[in-house]
Amino acid sequence: MKLLTFLGLTLLGLFFIVPNFKKEIHPKKIVMASSSKKVVTVYNTLNANHFQLPNMESFSEALKGFYSFKDKGFFQKDFLTIIDFSLSSRVKRLWIIDMVQNKIILNTLVAHGKNSGEDYANQFSNTNESNKSSLGFYATGEVYQGKHGLSLKLDGLEKGVNDNARERAIVIHGADYVSDNFLKNHSRLGKSHGCPAVPNELSKKIIELIKNKSCLFIYHSSQSTKLLS
Question: What are the DSSP E strand ranges found in 109-148?
Answer without folding.
Answer: 136-146
